[in-house]
Amino acid sequence: MNIKKLQQFLEENNLPKFRLGQIQKAIFMDGVSSFSEITTLSKNLREKIEKEMQLLSFEVEKVLVAEDGQSIKALLKLFDGNLIETVLISPKPGIWSACISCQVGCAMGCRFCATGKMGFKRDLTDEEITDQVLFWRQYLKKNSKLFGNCNLGFENCDVKNIVYMGMGEPFNNWKEVSESIKILTDEKLFGFGSRSISVSTSGIADGIERMANEFPQVNLAISLHFASDEKRDRFMPVNKKDNLEKLRNALKKYFQITKRKVFLEYIMLDGINDAALDAKLLADFIHSIGNTHLLHINLIRYNMTSEELKPSSKTRTQLFKQELEKYNVNTTIRKSLGEEIKAACGQLAGE
Ligand code: SAH
Ligand code: SF4
Q1: Are 350 and 84 in contact (CB under 8 A)?
Q2: Long-range contacts of residues 12-15, Cβ cutoff 8 Å, at least 24 apart
Q3: Is residue 169 flagged as an active site residue?
Q4: For residue 219, which of 106, 155, 198, 227 is within the disulfide window of CB 3.0 to 4.6 Å?
């Protein structure tokens, strides 16, 4: 929803200021799916807005619901024809997280990621980013009764968390991403708390510092995946510029400013980064940063995007966790959701 256009529309039609608040509340908080549902407005006004304004900046091409009802993926067609994907995940009954995209494709070229394989097409605008959340809010409102684990009523079935973990690298589109965070946390608009928002980066060092200064309360996740420069170079081209040394320094500065927990994502790749020696290197990296209690490793299952790589077995993942714990590193094995509908991490490719 383009807020500036809405303000302009109200001015052009000589409508009193309080109407803006009324309409914003209906759209952003209540999640109406069309202007005609805003019954506090006269019928004439509703019809006029409906004709002149657009609630969402894309059309919904397809919605896929996983069999367990815990993840839902939507394929969205932007007005210029580009396709993006957004995912809604329910890690616990009644809790929904919206995983949103910030670019069409991605320029970073990580070898294990389906989005990376697409290459970069364009940045999304702040409106296209936040409309993904608006879309899910509307969707949950309309469908809350359909989902078994959502029988607690709409209030308990709203989007609770937002993660910038869809398509794209947030720090490559920081202007629009930072605007989108302001819209999501604006009390007159979406009203999310900063702490319910997480931004994930492949490890762009100056972006990490910028985020600490601009949004110290927003959660940060870093896709680390490898604890040796040699391996990280091979799979993540970002490492050639921002290597482990640079990441270490960026994290040290981050902690000086925020003192907040950071999540380090680590995909488990069979025979590549899952041996005891890799765990040792990872633990050494963590301890070299300091503030170990603020660093948390998430071990993620690799979702196959090509035949080149294979996921580590459950046993190997468990052993890797135990190994890290020997070195006093906080570690969690993350459950992968949405693989069957290609909605899991790294599988989004706008298809
Ligand atoms: N570009 C940002 C945001 C995307 S988040 C980033 O890379 O952090 C998507 C997460 O899924 C990242 O941690 C990414 O490294 C991870 N990922 C990519 N491909 C994957 C795959 N095939 N299996 C599991 N995780 C993958
Ligand atoms: Fe881009 Fe993130 Fe995929 Fe890497 S993992 S290609 S940074 S979306």
Answers
A1: yes
A2: 13/45, 13/48, 15/45
A3: no
A4: 198
| Given 102, 106, 150, 345, the catalytic residue | 345
Residues 6+ apart with CB under 8 A from 160: 95, 96, 97, 196
Whole-number mean pLDDT of the chain? 92
The closest residue, in CA terms, to atom 6 on ligand 2 is 116
pTM here is 0.95
Q: For the chain, what are the domain ranges?
A: 3-52, 58-341
Among candidate residues 118, 77, 71, the one with its CA nearest the CA of residue 97: 71
Structure tokens at 110: 């990580």
Question: Which pLDDT band, with edges at 50, 70 and 90, does 142 fall under?
Answer: confident
Q: Nearest CA to 198 among 219, 223, 182? A: 219
What does 175-197 look like in DSSP terms, one character per residue?
A: HHHHHHHHHHH-TTTT---GGGE
- Residue 68: predicted pLDDT: 81
> Which tokens belong to 107?
């320029």
pLDDT bin (cut points 50, 70, 90) of residue 151 is very low
Q: How far apart are CA 322 and CA 233, in angstroms?
A: 26
Name the fold adopted by 58-341: TIM Barrel (3.20.20)
85 is catalytic: yes
State the pLDDT at residue 152. Answer: 46
Look at the block and give the residue holding tokens 């359909």.
Answer: 146
Check 47, 50, 85, 339 and give the catalytic one. 85
- Residue range 293-344, pLDDT digits in tens: 999 999 999 998 888 899 999 999 999 999 999 999 999 999 877 777 676 6
Evaluate if residue 285 carries a pLDDT over 50.
Answer: yes
Q: Are 260 and 221 in contact (CB under 8 A)?
A: no
